[in-house]
Amino acid sequence: MLRRSQLGRDRLSVDISEFKHRIDIPSRLKESLDRNPIGWIGGGLAAGLLASMTLRRSAPAVPKRKSGLVGLALTVAGTLARPLLKTWLTGKLRSTLDSRDAGPPFGKA
Hints:
Layout: H1 2-23, H2 25-35, H3 37-54, H4 68-102
Helix pairs in contact: 2-3
């Protein structure tokens, strides 16, 4: 019975050391890198090349500009309307938020 108990403890200690080795990812990666550095370098280069090819940005589209008097008039009108539009939208947002704050709190009617 003592021998079976000792064998069980020995097996358990071996299992625990194997488990610790399996969950110790940094040391496993270091061992793998030490055993096969060319494979890791090649894999890194291939992954970087693949990522750069698939995640490439497209060239930005150049907006077509209207030429002539109509284009000039639209540009000037947009430039002049921008501050007015900003002021109007800010006022609308402020009044909307103020009206929400004036109401009863949640859960109380």
